[in-house]
Design a protein that fits this description.
single chain; mainly alpha; flat
């Protein structure tokens, strides 16, 4: 169940990043706070609030994951959010993200590292000492 909490936390924090990005693209500059009260910005403000709420919920899920998983297994799972955000940002055309080979290699390295950390040890010399 600890992995479930961790993965749900990763999904929420990834959604939060995407919501915050979209909201900030559609809100006026931070220096023009008076404009933020304009009803025309109700939707971006709602999505900004939704992104912040997703962050809070992600933290709650992360606390639950930390109660159930060793830190050396839980913490690397946070890097999955980099993969999810990168993939989703590429699919959201409004973000105008560019796909590059170096981005692909970075995502592949993250995924490879996660496999090395999270998969159970299989060799004779890999058994943990007690």
């Amino acid at each position: 169940m600890g992995y479930g909490w961790a993965l749900f936390s990763v999904a929420l924090v990834s959604a939060a990043q995407l919501l915050l990005k979209w909201a900030m693209m559609h809100l006026p500059p931070l220096g023009a706070l008076r404009l933020w009260l304009d009803p025309a910005y109700a939707e971006p403000l709602a999505l900004l609030a939704g992104g912040l709420l997703a962050y809070v919920c992600s933290m709650a899920c992360w606390f639950m994951a930390l109660r159930r998983l060793p830190l050396n297994k839980a913490y690397p799972l946070l890097s999955l959010s980099y993969v999810l955000v990168a993939a989703c940002a590429l699919m959201i055309t409004e973000f105008n993200e560019r796909f590059t080979f170096s981005c692909l290699m970075g995502v592949a390295l993250i995924c490879g590292g996660l496999l090395l950390i999270c998969l159970p040890a299989g060799g004779k010399g890999d058994t943990p000492r007690r």
